[in-house]
Fold this sequence. Notes:
The structure holds 2 protein chains of 2 kinds. Chain A is mostly helical. In chain A, 47% of the residues lie in helices and 10% in strands. Chain B is mainly alpha-helical. The longest helix of chain B is centred in the C-terminal third of the chain and has 46 residues, at 162-207. Chain B is extended. Chain B starts with 21 loop residues before the first helix and ends in a 10-residue tail after the last helix. The chains are: A mainly alpha, B mainly alpha. The A-B interface holds A 1-2, 4, 6-8, 31, 33, 36-37, 40-46, 48-49, 52, 80, 82-83, 85-86, 89-90, 93, 95-96 and B 67-70, 73-74, 110-111, 114-115, 118-120, 123, 130-135, 137, 139-141, 143-144, 147-148, 151.
Amino acid sequence: MANRTSSTAQSVHGTDPQFLIETTFRQRIYDSLYWKDQCFGLTVTGVMEKAAALTSLGGCYGASRKPTDFLCLLLKLLQLQPTRPMLHELINQHDFKYMRALALLYFRLTESSVDIYQTLEPLYQDFSKLRMRCDGGEFEIVRMDEFVDTLLREKQACFVTLPVLTRRMMLEDTGQLAPRISPLDEDSDSE
Amino acid sequence: MGQMNAYGGEKSSEGFRRQWDTAAYVQKARDREQQLKLDEENEERRHKGLKPRPAKNTAPKEPRELLEARKDAVRLDKMVGKSQIVQASSAAAGQPGFYCKECDITVKDSLSYLDHINGKKHQRILNRIMKVQVETVDDVIAKLASLRAIKRRQMDKPDYDFYEQVKLQQQLDAEKKLKRKEAKKKQREAKKSVVASDQPDEMAAMLGFSSFGSSKK
Lengths: 191, 217
Protein backbone atom coordinates (compact mmCIF):
# COMPACT_ATOMS: atom_id res chain seq x y z
CA MET A 1 0.00 0.00 0.00
CA ALA A 2 2.84 2.35 0.77
CA ASN A 3 4.33 1.45 -2.59
CA ARG A 4 1.23 1.93 -4.66
CA THR A 5 0.75 4.85 -7.00
CA SER A 6 -1.88 7.37 -5.93
CA SER A 7 -5.35 6.30 -7.11
CA THR A 8 -5.90 9.76 -8.61
CA ALA A 9 -2.76 9.51 -10.75
CA GLN A 10 -3.02 9.24 -14.53
CA SER A 11 -0.85 7.05 -16.71
CA VAL A 12 2.33 8.59 -18.08
CA HIS A 13 3.76 7.52 -21.45
CA GLY A 14 1.24 4.73 -21.42
CA THR A 15 2.20 3.17 -18.09
CA ASP A 16 1.94 3.54 -14.36
CA PRO A 17 4.14 6.56 -13.55
CA GLN A 18 6.24 4.53 -11.12
CA PHE A 19 7.30 2.22 -13.96
CA LEU A 20 9.36 5.04 -15.43
CA ILE A 21 12.03 3.86 -13.01
CA GLU A 22 13.21 0.37 -13.90
CA THR A 23 12.04 -2.59 -11.84
CA THR A 24 15.49 -3.38 -10.46
CA PHE A 25 16.05 0.12 -9.16
CA ARG A 26 12.47 0.48 -8.03
CA GLN A 27 12.79 -2.64 -5.92
CA ARG A 28 16.05 -1.37 -4.42
CA ILE A 29 14.24 1.81 -3.44
CA TYR A 30 11.29 -0.05 -1.88
CA ASP A 31 13.72 -2.11 0.18
CA SER A 32 15.78 0.84 1.38
CA LEU A 33 15.67 2.29 4.89
CA TYR A 34 15.18 5.88 3.72
CA TRP A 35 12.09 4.92 1.74
CA LYS A 36 10.49 2.94 4.57
CA ASP A 37 11.41 5.33 7.32
CA GLN A 38 11.28 8.81 5.80
CA CYS A 39 9.19 8.51 2.68
CA PHE A 40 6.15 6.85 4.21
CA GLY A 41 2.95 8.87 4.05
CA LEU A 42 4.56 11.89 2.39
CA THR A 43 2.51 14.43 0.49
CA VAL A 44 4.00 16.81 -2.07
CA THR A 45 4.84 19.32 0.66
CA GLY A 46 6.47 16.53 2.65
CA VAL A 47 8.63 15.68 -0.35
CA MET A 48 9.54 19.37 -0.64
CA GLU A 49 10.70 19.39 2.96
CA LYS A 50 12.92 16.36 2.37
CA ALA A 51 14.16 17.77 -0.93
CA ALA A 52 15.20 20.99 0.80
CA ALA A 53 17.41 18.84 3.02
CA LEU A 54 19.01 16.90 0.14
CA THR A 55 22.76 17.16 -0.30
CA SER A 56 23.39 15.21 -3.49
CA LEU A 57 21.98 13.79 -6.70
CA GLY A 58 22.56 10.27 -7.79
CA GLY A 59 21.16 6.92 -8.66
CA CYS A 60 22.04 3.63 -7.05
CA TYR A 61 25.62 3.45 -5.86
CA GLY A 62 27.99 1.00 -4.33
CA ALA A 63 28.25 -2.74 -4.49
CA SER A 64 24.88 -3.19 -2.82
CA ARG A 65 23.30 -0.70 -5.24
CA LYS A 66 22.05 1.57 -2.48
CA PRO A 67 19.59 4.18 -3.78
CA THR A 68 20.25 7.82 -2.97
CA ASP A 69 17.68 9.87 -1.09
CA PHE A 70 17.28 11.84 -4.32
CA LEU A 71 16.11 8.77 -6.19
CA CYS A 72 13.75 7.78 -3.39
CA LEU A 73 12.13 11.21 -3.49
CA LEU A 74 11.85 10.99 -7.27
CA LEU A 75 9.92 7.75 -6.93
CA LYS A 76 7.73 9.34 -4.28
CA LEU A 77 6.91 12.21 -6.64
CA LEU A 78 6.04 9.72 -9.35
CA GLN A 79 3.67 8.06 -6.89
CA LEU A 80 2.00 11.32 -5.93
CA GLN A 81 1.92 12.89 -9.38
CA PRO A 82 2.11 16.62 -8.62
CA THR A 83 0.33 18.90 -11.07
CA ARG A 84 2.10 21.06 -13.63
CA PRO A 85 1.59 24.37 -11.73
CA MET A 86 3.20 22.74 -8.70
CA LEU A 87 6.16 21.62 -10.78
CA HIS A 88 6.60 25.09 -12.21
CA GLU A 89 6.71 26.48 -8.67
CA LEU A 90 9.40 23.99 -7.74
CA ILE A 91 11.45 24.66 -10.86
CA ASN A 92 11.24 28.44 -10.73
CA GLN A 93 12.33 28.81 -7.11
CA HIS A 94 15.97 29.74 -6.55
CA ASP A 95 16.55 28.73 -2.96
CA PHE A 96 16.83 24.96 -3.09
CA LYS A 97 18.88 23.64 -5.97
CA TYR A 98 18.39 19.93 -5.28
CA MET A 99 14.63 20.46 -5.12
CA ARG A 100 14.96 22.14 -8.49
CA ALA A 101 16.99 19.28 -9.91
CA LEU A 102 14.42 16.79 -8.60
CA ALA A 103 11.56 18.71 -10.22
CA LEU A 104 13.51 18.97 -13.47
CA LEU A 105 14.14 15.24 -13.63
CA TYR A 106 10.49 14.58 -12.85
CA PHE A 107 9.46 17.04 -15.56
CA ARG A 108 11.75 15.36 -18.08
CA LEU A 109 10.27 11.97 -17.27
CA THR A 110 6.64 12.92 -17.47
CA GLU A 111 5.99 15.85 -19.78
CA SER A 112 5.77 16.27 -23.53
CA SER A 113 8.78 17.19 -25.67
CA VAL A 114 7.69 20.75 -26.41
CA ASP A 115 7.11 21.50 -22.71
CA ILE A 116 10.43 19.95 -21.81
CA TYR A 117 12.37 22.16 -24.21
CA GLN A 118 10.50 25.26 -23.12
CA THR A 119 10.98 24.60 -19.40
CA LEU A 120 14.48 23.18 -19.34
CA GLU A 121 16.30 25.44 -21.76
CA PRO A 122 16.16 28.59 -19.59
CA LEU A 123 18.00 26.59 -16.95
CA TYR A 124 21.10 26.51 -19.10
CA GLN A 125 21.82 29.79 -17.36
CA ASP A 126 21.83 28.30 -13.88
CA PHE A 127 25.44 27.59 -12.97
CA SER A 128 24.99 26.25 -9.42
CA LYS A 129 27.12 23.33 -8.37
CA LEU A 130 25.49 20.07 -7.46
CA ARG A 131 26.97 17.02 -5.80
CA MET A 132 26.50 13.84 -7.79
CA ARG A 133 26.97 10.46 -6.18
CA CYS A 134 28.71 8.23 -8.66
CA ASP A 135 28.60 4.51 -9.26
CA GLY A 136 31.28 3.61 -6.73
CA GLY A 137 29.89 5.88 -4.04
CA GLU A 138 32.29 8.78 -4.47
CA PHE A 139 31.06 12.31 -5.10
CA GLU A 140 31.48 14.40 -8.19
CA ILE A 141 30.57 18.01 -8.94
CA VAL A 142 28.04 18.62 -11.66
CA ARG A 143 26.72 22.03 -12.58
CA MET A 144 23.02 22.61 -13.07
CA ASP A 145 23.44 23.48 -16.74
CA GLU A 146 25.43 20.27 -17.27
CA PHE A 147 22.62 18.39 -15.57
CA VAL A 148 20.03 20.02 -17.82
CA ASP A 149 22.19 19.15 -20.82
CA THR A 150 22.28 15.51 -19.68
CA LEU A 151 18.50 15.55 -19.41
CA LEU A 152 18.11 16.92 -22.90
CA ARG A 153 20.75 14.92 -24.72
CA GLU A 154 21.50 11.69 -22.89
CA LYS A 155 19.52 8.49 -22.65
CA GLN A 156 19.94 8.14 -18.90
CA ALA A 157 20.31 10.38 -15.89
CA CYS A 158 20.78 9.23 -12.30
CA PHE A 159 20.18 5.64 -13.37
CA VAL A 160 16.80 6.55 -14.76
CA THR A 161 16.22 5.81 -18.44
CA LEU A 162 14.85 8.96 -19.96
CA PRO A 163 11.86 8.69 -22.29
CA VAL A 164 12.52 9.46 -25.93
CA LEU A 165 12.63 13.19 -26.60
CA THR A 166 11.72 14.42 -30.06
CA ARG A 167 14.65 16.22 -31.63
CA ARG A 168 14.47 19.97 -31.48
CA MET A 169 14.92 20.25 -35.23
CA MET A 170 11.78 18.22 -35.84
CA LEU A 171 9.74 20.39 -33.51
CA GLU A 172 11.09 23.54 -35.19
CA ASP A 173 10.20 22.15 -38.62
CA THR A 174 6.64 21.42 -37.58
CA GLY A 175 6.40 24.88 -36.07
CA GLN A 176 5.79 23.76 -32.51
CA LEU A 177 8.93 25.45 -31.25
CA ALA A 178 10.67 28.62 -32.22
CA PRO A 179 14.32 28.18 -33.23
CA ARG A 180 16.57 28.50 -30.24
CA ILE A 181 18.30 31.79 -29.63
CA SER A 182 21.27 31.12 -27.42
CA PRO A 183 22.06 33.77 -24.82
CA LEU A 184 25.65 33.57 -26.04
CA ASP A 185 24.60 34.82 -29.48
CA GLU A 186 22.78 37.69 -27.87
CA ASP A 187 25.86 38.67 -25.92
CA SER A 188 28.10 38.64 -28.94
CA ASP A 189 25.54 40.68 -30.91
CA SER A 190 25.32 43.34 -28.24
CA GLU A 191 29.04 43.81 -28.47
CA MET B 1 -60.67 7.92 31.09
CA GLY B 2 -60.58 4.62 29.32
CA GLN B 3 -61.83 1.26 30.45
CA MET B 4 -60.48 -0.15 33.71
CA ASN B 5 -58.93 -3.57 33.99
CA ALA B 6 -59.24 -5.99 36.90
CA TYR B 7 -56.24 -4.52 38.75
CA GLY B 8 -57.52 -0.98 38.63
CA GLY B 9 -55.25 0.21 35.87
CA GLU B 10 -56.22 1.52 32.48
CA LYS B 11 -56.79 -0.82 29.61
CA SER B 12 -54.33 0.05 26.82
CA SER B 13 -55.26 -0.04 23.13
CA GLU B 14 -52.51 -2.60 22.39
CA GLY B 15 -53.97 -4.92 25.00
CA PHE B 16 -52.20 -6.95 27.66
CA ARG B 17 -50.30 -9.05 25.15
CA ARG B 18 -46.56 -8.91 24.62
CA GLN B 19 -45.43 -6.75 21.76
CA TRP B 20 -42.41 -7.37 19.56
CA ASP B 21 -40.43 -4.96 17.44
CA THR B 22 -41.31 -6.58 14.11
CA ALA B 23 -38.85 -4.55 12.03
CA ALA B 24 -35.87 -5.61 14.15
CA TYR B 25 -36.82 -9.27 13.98
CA VAL B 26 -37.37 -9.08 10.22
CA GLN B 27 -33.85 -7.68 9.90
CA LYS B 28 -32.50 -10.44 12.13
CA ALA B 29 -34.18 -13.11 10.02
CA ARG B 30 -32.78 -11.58 6.84
CA ASP B 31 -29.27 -11.46 8.28
CA ARG B 32 -29.53 -15.09 9.37
CA GLU B 33 -30.69 -16.14 5.94
CA GLN B 34 -27.81 -14.29 4.31
CA GLN B 35 -25.35 -15.87 6.71
CA LEU B 36 -26.71 -19.36 5.89
CA LYS B 37 -26.35 -18.66 2.18
CA LEU B 38 -22.81 -17.40 2.74
CA ASP B 39 -21.93 -20.50 4.76
CA GLU B 40 -23.22 -22.74 1.98
CA GLU B 41 -21.23 -20.80 -0.58
CA ASN B 42 -18.09 -20.95 1.55
CA GLU B 43 -18.52 -24.73 1.92
CA GLU B 44 -18.54 -25.05 -1.87
CA ARG B 45 -15.53 -22.77 -2.15
CA ARG B 46 -13.69 -24.83 0.43
CA HIS B 47 -14.33 -27.97 -1.58
CA LYS B 48 -12.96 -26.23 -4.63
CA GLY B 49 -9.94 -25.07 -2.70
CA LEU B 50 -10.80 -21.37 -2.81
CA LYS B 51 -10.62 -18.90 0.07
CA PRO B 52 -13.90 -18.29 1.92
CA ARG B 53 -15.74 -15.10 1.14
CA PRO B 54 -16.06 -12.83 4.20
CA ALA B 55 -19.47 -11.78 5.55
CA LYS B 56 -20.71 -8.33 4.56
CA ASN B 57 -20.25 -5.86 7.34
CA THR B 58 -23.50 -3.87 7.41
CA ALA B 59 -22.44 -1.65 10.32
CA PRO B 60 -21.98 1.99 9.27
CA LYS B 61 -18.32 2.65 8.47
CA GLU B 62 -16.62 5.11 10.78
CA PRO B 63 -14.75 7.82 8.90
CA ARG B 64 -11.03 7.22 9.19
CA GLU B 65 -8.23 9.75 8.95
CA LEU B 66 -5.95 10.23 5.99
CA LEU B 67 -2.45 8.82 6.01
CA GLU B 68 0.23 11.11 7.35
CA ALA B 69 3.98 10.96 7.60
CA ARG B 70 5.31 10.10 11.03
CA LYS B 71 6.03 13.10 13.20
CA ASP B 72 8.22 11.28 15.72
CA ALA B 73 11.27 9.58 14.36
CA VAL B 74 11.33 5.82 14.53
CA ARG B 75 14.52 5.37 16.45
CA LEU B 76 15.59 1.88 15.57
CA ASP B 77 18.65 2.18 17.78
CA LYS B 78 16.67 3.29 20.82
CA MET B 79 17.41 0.16 22.83
CA VAL B 80 21.00 -0.40 21.73
CA GLY B 81 23.24 -0.95 24.75
CA LYS B 82 20.32 -0.76 27.17
CA SER B 83 19.17 -3.46 29.58
CA GLN B 84 15.52 -3.92 30.31
CA ILE B 85 13.72 -6.01 32.89
CA VAL B 86 11.25 -8.23 31.07
CA GLN B 87 7.83 -7.66 32.59
CA ALA B 88 6.19 -9.66 29.83
CA SER B 89 2.66 -8.31 29.93
CA SER B 90 2.17 -10.51 26.89
CA ALA B 91 4.20 -13.24 25.23
CA ALA B 92 5.19 -10.91 22.43
CA ALA B 93 6.22 -8.01 24.67
CA GLY B 94 8.93 -10.04 26.36
CA GLN B 95 10.64 -11.08 23.12
CA PRO B 96 13.85 -9.40 21.94
CA GLY B 97 13.33 -7.23 18.90
CA PHE B 98 11.10 -4.36 17.88
CA TYR B 99 7.85 -4.38 19.79
CA CYS B 100 4.71 -2.80 18.39
CA LYS B 101 2.43 -1.88 21.30
CA GLU B 102 -0.69 -1.27 19.23
CA CYS B 103 -0.66 -4.66 17.56
CA ASP B 104 1.09 -6.62 20.34
CA ILE B 105 3.68 -7.97 17.96
CA THR B 106 7.45 -8.27 18.18
CA VAL B 107 9.35 -8.14 14.91
CA LYS B 108 12.94 -9.31 14.86
CA ASP B 109 14.15 -7.33 11.86
CA SER B 110 14.30 -3.53 11.60
CA LEU B 111 13.17 -3.39 7.96
CA SER B 112 10.34 -5.82 8.63
CA TYR B 113 9.37 -3.71 11.61
CA LEU B 114 9.16 -0.65 9.39
CA ASP B 115 7.11 -2.65 6.90
CA HIS B 116 4.77 -3.56 9.73
CA ILE B 117 4.24 -0.03 11.03
CA ASN B 118 3.78 1.18 7.45
CA GLY B 119 1.33 -1.62 6.75
CA LYS B 120 -2.43 -1.80 6.39
CA LYS B 121 -3.15 -3.68 9.64
CA HIS B 122 -1.25 -1.27 11.84
CA GLN B 123 -2.64 1.83 10.14
CA ARG B 124 -6.14 0.46 10.58
CA ILE B 125 -5.52 0.21 14.33
CA LEU B 126 -4.36 3.83 14.24
CA ASN B 127 -7.66 4.59 12.46
CA ARG B 128 -6.07 5.61 9.17
CA ILE B 129 -6.83 4.84 5.57
CA MET B 130 -3.94 4.24 3.22
CA LYS B 131 -4.34 7.42 1.15
CA VAL B 132 -2.55 10.71 1.63
CA GLN B 133 -4.10 14.11 1.35
CA VAL B 134 -4.23 15.51 -2.18
CA GLU B 135 -2.65 18.95 -2.18
CA THR B 136 -2.98 22.10 -4.28
CA VAL B 137 -0.56 24.67 -5.73
CA ASP B 138 -1.31 26.99 -2.82
CA ASP B 139 -0.02 24.39 -0.38
CA VAL B 140 3.17 24.16 -2.40
CA ILE B 141 3.60 27.94 -2.47
CA ALA B 142 2.99 28.19 1.26
CA LYS B 143 5.46 25.41 1.95
CA LEU B 144 8.12 27.07 -0.19
CA ALA B 145 7.66 30.28 1.76
CA SER B 146 8.02 28.52 5.11
CA LEU B 147 11.10 26.59 3.94
CA ARG B 148 12.66 29.85 2.76
CA ALA B 149 11.94 31.46 6.13
CA ILE B 150 13.61 28.57 7.95
CA LYS B 151 16.63 28.78 5.67
CA ARG B 152 16.92 32.53 6.21
CA ARG B 153 16.68 32.13 9.96
CA GLN B 154 19.50 29.61 9.88
CA MET B 155 21.66 31.88 7.75
CA ASP B 156 21.02 34.89 10.01
CA LYS B 157 22.26 33.06 13.08
CA PRO B 158 25.27 34.72 14.70
CA ASP B 159 28.66 33.09 14.51
CA TYR B 160 29.20 30.00 16.57
CA ASP B 161 30.44 30.84 20.06
CA PHE B 162 31.77 27.79 21.86
CA TYR B 163 31.37 28.96 25.45
CA GLU B 164 27.85 30.24 24.80
CA GLN B 165 26.90 26.89 23.36
CA VAL B 166 28.36 25.04 26.34
CA LYS B 167 26.33 27.21 28.72
CA LEU B 168 23.17 26.69 26.64
CA GLN B 169 23.68 22.94 26.60
CA GLN B 170 24.21 22.83 30.37
CA GLN B 171 21.00 24.80 30.86
CA LEU B 172 19.05 22.45 28.60
CA ASP B 173 20.42 19.39 30.40
CA ALA B 174 19.47 20.84 33.81
CA GLU B 175 15.95 21.58 32.55
CA LYS B 176 15.63 18.04 31.21
CA LYS B 177 16.66 16.57 34.53
CA LEU B 178 14.12 18.70 36.40
CA LYS B 179 11.37 17.68 34.01
CA ARG B 180 12.19 14.02 34.40
CA LYS B 181 12.18 14.31 38.19
CA GLU B 182 8.82 16.05 38.20
CA ALA B 183 7.35 13.49 35.81
CA LYS B 184 8.52 10.66 38.06
CA LYS B 185 7.08 12.38 41.11
CA LYS B 186 3.74 12.77 39.40
CA GLN B 187 3.72 9.12 38.40
CA ARG B 188 4.48 8.03 41.95
CA GLU B 189 1.73 10.25 43.37
CA ALA B 190 -0.75 9.06 40.77
CA LYS B 191 0.02 5.44 41.67
CA LYS B 192 -0.37 6.12 45.38
CA SER B 193 -3.74 7.81 44.95
CA VAL B 194 -5.03 4.96 42.73
CA VAL B 195 -3.95 2.31 45.23
CA ALA B 196 -5.38 4.22 48.17
CA SER B 197 -8.75 4.80 46.51
CA ASP B 198 -9.13 1.20 45.25
CA GLN B 199 -8.73 -0.72 48.45
CA PRO B 200 -11.37 0.69 50.82
CA ASP B 201 -14.25 0.17 48.31
CA GLU B 202 -13.43 -3.42 47.40
CA MET B 203 -12.55 -4.57 50.88
CA ALA B 204 -15.49 -2.82 52.47
CA ALA B 205 -17.86 -4.44 49.98
CA MET B 206 -16.48 -7.97 50.32
CA LEU B 207 -15.37 -8.37 53.88
CA GLY B 208 -17.23 -5.87 55.89
CA PHE B 209 -14.10 -4.00 56.99
CA SER B 210 -12.04 -1.57 54.98
CA SER B 211 -8.54 -1.92 56.40
CA PHE B 212 -6.47 -4.03 58.68
CA GLY B 213 -5.83 -2.87 62.20
CA SER B 214 -8.45 -1.83 64.65
CA SER B 215 -10.51 1.25 64.42
CA LYS B 216 -9.75 1.95 68.02
CA LYS B 217 -7.28 4.70 68.52
